[in-house]
Amino acid sequence: MPPFFVFVVLLLFTTGSAQSSKAPSGGSEKIKQTLLQIEREIGRANFHCDYKYFDLVEAEEFVFTDSSGGVTNKKEDMAGEKGCRKNDFTYDLDDTHV
């Protein structure tokens, strides 16, 4: 699964989870910083094949639909670890709006 698509799905999942759970103390700025940190970690995890992180943030009911209509569940996504190749790319956030 392309890292960008995993990132988008996890970001949407995380955002939905944040809305349905108790808000962190500190108000909206704290929530924004928390979501941005999660987004940074997803990018880092993609480039470093950190499947422990994905196991932590993906729900057991995780379902991903890619741009061609292919569907992947958490078990299938986690199986991608075998073919993952670490790289030195960096992931930066620009002009974010939360």
Characterise the protein shown here.
- It is a single chain.
- With about 100 residues, the protein is mainly α.
- The chain contains four helices and two strands; from the N terminus they run H-H-H-E-E-H.
- It has helices at about 5-20, 25-50, 50-55, 75-80; strands at about 65, 70-75.
- The chain has a two-stranded antiparallel sheet with strand order 1-2.
- Helix 1 packs antiparallel against helix 2 (about 25-50).
- The chain is globular.
- The mean pLDDT is about 80.
Summarize model confidence as the mean pLDDT: 81
Uncertain runs = none
The helix/strand class is: mainly alpha
Number of alpha- plus pi-helical segments: 4
Biggest β-sheet: count, sense, barrel? 2 strands, antiparallel
Order of helices and strands: HHHEEH
Q: Span between N and C termini?
A: 25 Å
What is the gyration radius calculated from CA atoms?
A: 14 Å
Helix content: 40-55%
Multimerization state: single chain
Number of strands: 2
Per DSSP, what share of the residues sits in E-state strands of 2 or more residues?
5-15%
Side-by-side strand order of the widest sheet? 1-2
Shape: globular
